[in-house]
Amino acid sequence: MTFNILISDPLSEDGIFPLREAEGFNIVVDTALTPEQLGEKIGEFDALLVRSQTQVTREIIEKGSNLKIIGRAGVGVDNIDLTAATERGIIVVNAPDGNTNSAAEHSIAMLMSLARNIPQAFHSLKNKKWDRKTFIGVEVKNKTLGVLGFGRIGQEVAFRAKGQRMNVIAYDPFLTAEKAEKLGVQFGSVEDVIKAADFITVHTPLLKETRHLINKEAFEKMKDGVQIINCARGGIIDEDALYDAIVAGKVAGAALDVFEEEPFVEHKLLTLPQVIATPHLGASTVEAQEIVAIDVSYDVVSFLQNGTVKNPVNLSSVPKDVLAKIEPFFNLGEQLGSFLSDLAEGVPEEVNITYSGELANLDTRPLSRNAIKGLLKSKLGESVNDVNAKFLADRLGITVNELKTSKSKGFTSLITVEMRTATGTRKVAGTLLNGLGGRIVRVDDFIVDVIPSGYLLFIRHKDQPGAIGRVGTLLASEGINIAAMQVGRSEIGGDAIMMISIDKHVEKSGIEQLKGLEDIFDATPIDL
Ligand SMILES: NC(=O)C1=CN([C@@H]2O[C@H](COP(=O)(O)OP(=O)(O)OC[C@H]3O[C@@H](n4cnc5c(N)ncnc54)[C@H](O)[C@@H]3O)[C@@H](O)[C@H]2O)C=CC1
Ligand SMILES: O=C(O)CCC(=O)C(=O)O
């Protein structure tokens, strides 16, 4: 099998060795494609690797008829339409750790350059001026650095700033006062941070909530002479408001690595002497570029070869040790979903997936995705996958609930999938038997023991002599061999079931004949 990989932004050649070494990977590097050219070509590729320059829009994604994975060699995925990728079942992976150090070092370099006017002084000297008066700076020691966004880079910047003997106050929705104290910084709200800081540095992603986090009102609340650093994303700071605040003398200076529109050659902020800037260089080091390229390349190879990734963006990831425990249940989850989809009549309205026993203590979201995938696949076909299963269920208005209980009816772990449709509620439960693989152990309220694969026939009947024989005879007359069979009943002479493993699919006419037999209430073919 050959996989076609397109690299459309400059990636470290040393870092893409996992792709180069993988068998059957055909790699095309073309970093000069226009959006139109990319749209024309993308249909040929299984994977697209980008940095921040290529805009992977909905239009591009929709033209990617073979596209299975998009790799972002870096952190920010705001250049990729994640919704469009998820809808089409395309997994997006990034390299979240590889450039943390470089981005933090760049932020500190910008802070120090800003405080000491280094770029302006250098520029003046290059223009043959020995000017020592204009470029008087400020010390950072004992000044307060406000950090908005205390994730990987925000924290690294804070540790380095403390090395410069700065006081650090930080805000992050996931930060608490206790955690901040442990990390040696002060915790505050956004308002506390912007009011207290002499320097403010932002390290959030660009989201709806963080767009123009620093705006006109925020500037008004800041100390006079505050200095601003943005090495995260353009758009977190309102550039017009920043311009006005600098011109008004409220803000003494700004160091910007990122901009609302990139790339550009002219920018009104760069007409101000108080502004220093770099063209999105935060991650541009030999080390960072090599690591991020290695990380995404490994994920692309691993995904195309065996469907696993380390750094998914549009799928929840679980730690490796948890994955190892739940992975053996993936097939069973999909089979239970698929079984139920054949068993239940009508449009699914609500699905309850209950994990009992040992599974109840684990993060089972990937397992639920498999169950939903199985459930939707028989209706929607092969376009359903792990990435879009939950999205498609939401879009179809199916409520999916994940429930956990320690009570597992004697099984080490049990998965029960229950589905409500307009015609009623049906359920199926399964487990893994040590060394023997998956088993369906319950259908509705009947106990069974069935290997969930191949062709099955689920029959509801009255517990009467002759019912089983009539079914066997009819199947034989249709040329259908019975491989295994189980029966169960609620009480003698009451409702009963047959669960029959057969060697081929029973056609509709056969099902109708079965339903017409004496004492047979219902017959459902289940193809797994
Ligand atoms: N200039 C460059 O070349 C580079 C830029 N970046 C950018 O730096 C930023 C930070 O990256 P990482 O630290 O790796 O990400 P991260 O995910 O580790 O940290 C981001 C933090 O922002 C926080 N956050 C989210 N919403 C917030 C809000 N409303 N207010 C305050 N905090 C909020 C999150 O809780 C999280 O802790 C990203 O925008 C990333 O794209 C990253 C690498 C290089
Ligand atoms: O690829 C790059 O150089 C940009 C890195 C970046 O902005 C990120 O990782 O978020």
Automatic annotation (TrEMBL):
Signal peptide: none annotated. Keywords: Amino-acid biosynthesis, NAD, Oxidoreductase, Serine biosynthesis. Residues 456-528 form the ACT domain. The keyword Chloroplast does not apply. PROSITE patterns: ACT, D_2_HYDROXYACID_DH_1, D_2_HYDROXYACID_DH_2. GO terms for biological process: L-serine biosynthetic process. Pathway: Amino-acid biosynthesis; L-serine biosynthesis; L-serine from 3-phospho-D-glycerate: step 1/3. It catalyses: (2R)-3-phosphoglycerate + NAD(+) = 3-phosphooxypyruvate + NADH + H(+); (R)-2-hydroxyglutarate + NAD(+) = 2-oxoglutarate + NADH + H(+). It comes from the Bacteria. Gene3D superfamilies: 3.30.70.260, D-3-phosphoglycerate dehydrogenase, domain 3, NAD(P)-binding Rossmann-like Domain. Coiled coil: none annotated. GO terms for molecular function: NAD binding; phosphoglycerate dehydrogenase activity. CDD domains: ACT_3PGDH-xct (cd04902), PGDH_4 (cd12173). NCBIfam families: PGDH. Catalyzes the reversible oxidation of 3-phospho-D-glycerate to 3-phosphonooxypyruvate, the first step of the phosphorylated L-serine biosynthesis pathway. Also catalyzes the reversible oxidation of 2-hydroxyglutarate to 2-oxoglutarate. Belongs to the D-isomer specific 2-hydroxyacid dehydrogenase family. This is D-3-phosphoglycerate dehydrogenase. It comes from Psychrobacillus psychrodurans. The lineage of its organism: Bacteria, Bacillati, Bacillota, Bacilli, Bacillales.
